[in-house]
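tool_call: predict_structure(chain=1)
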Amino acid sequence: MSSAQPKQFKLHRAWIVAAITFVTLIAAAAFRSTTSIMFQPLEQEFGWTRSLTSNAVAVNLVVYGLTAPFAATLMERFTVRKVAVSALGLVSLGTGLTVFMTQGWQLILYWGVFVGLGTGCLALVFGSLVANRWFTKRRGLVTGIFSAAYATGQLIFLPMLSTVVMNSGWRVSSIVVAIFAASIIPLFFLGFKNSPAEANTIPYGGLSQEPAGKAAPRTARATIGVLFESLSKPAFWILAGTFFVCGWTTNGLIGAHFIPAAHDHGMPMGTAAGLLALVGIFDFVGTILSGWLTDRVNPIYLLMFYYGLRGLALFTVPFVLGPTVELPLMFFVVFYGLDWIATVPPTIELCRKYFGLNQSPTVYGWVFASHMVGAAIAAAFAGAIRDAQGSYFIAWITAAVLCLLAAGSVLLLKRIKPDFA
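tool_result:
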């Protein structure tokens, strides 16, 4: 009689790389969680206006977004590990230096430039590149998991950091984020590999049989060339335009202004931070589900549904915010949370279909730059509206209308045949 040997389970190296990428994306999200809870402490201590603090966030978002496409090029040229480690160092340095600031220009330099550059290199362009290199199967799901890292960072850090700010001050909160970002650096030296070839393996799901398209750019000039080439294609304008609206209605408006807006309605900062963290919980579920759906459903229809749902949810915000958490506000938290970053997996997939496997991370980098420019404009716009009128009402309604326009415009992609589907 021959006894069958039980198969030994062996974890593919791709999942270890994915886990380190996920944790790194959480580190970038950790800083993003600090901005809205620091508005009021900074304004009270230094006498700064909401416009000044909003403009500092706007600079961060612009630098963050414009860094992303060049980050993909830097990772192709200098390796993913070196760029990610340097970026984590910048996040830690910039956040830590805020402890010593006394002037508004320092807020813009540390928050806006240093941390903007660091988080720009750790944006979802980084996640897209890792997913493309390491996965031929489950790529949509993995992209969804990476996208959900933002929500997880928000979930973990918002309640904790808001408590730290209230009990120990905003400086201690900044130190916590700086230490966390620095503590992830050793993971890259212990377990991260730049490509399957470097780890003497193949991507999860086997070698890709899909057309790769043109080679990925390896210089800044080539990266800009990808942009100009993409500008000649209608698909790029649609993806960049809808993602502009995505950034406007997430990072720029809700991410930066939900907590201070809720405080305007009499809600304690801790309660508002808890609600935003709850948005993160539902986004974690919604974004991973979106990644799973992206492997199975036409991404165009997913984006139409996501933007439409988000627009309807935003219309309700001025009417459901109040000093206490009531059922209508919870409905907003649930529906908006499920939709928060759900747009990312189908957008990345459409970039791959229209621009090829090799160049899609760079193209997505430019699409992502549009996302962050939209976020920056929204952050500054909402702050100016609040200073001028004492209310965010116009900001909420403007965002809702933009979402409905995005839901309609994404259907134009149906008329454009993908080159690399």
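agent: The mean pLDDT is 86. Proceeding to next step.
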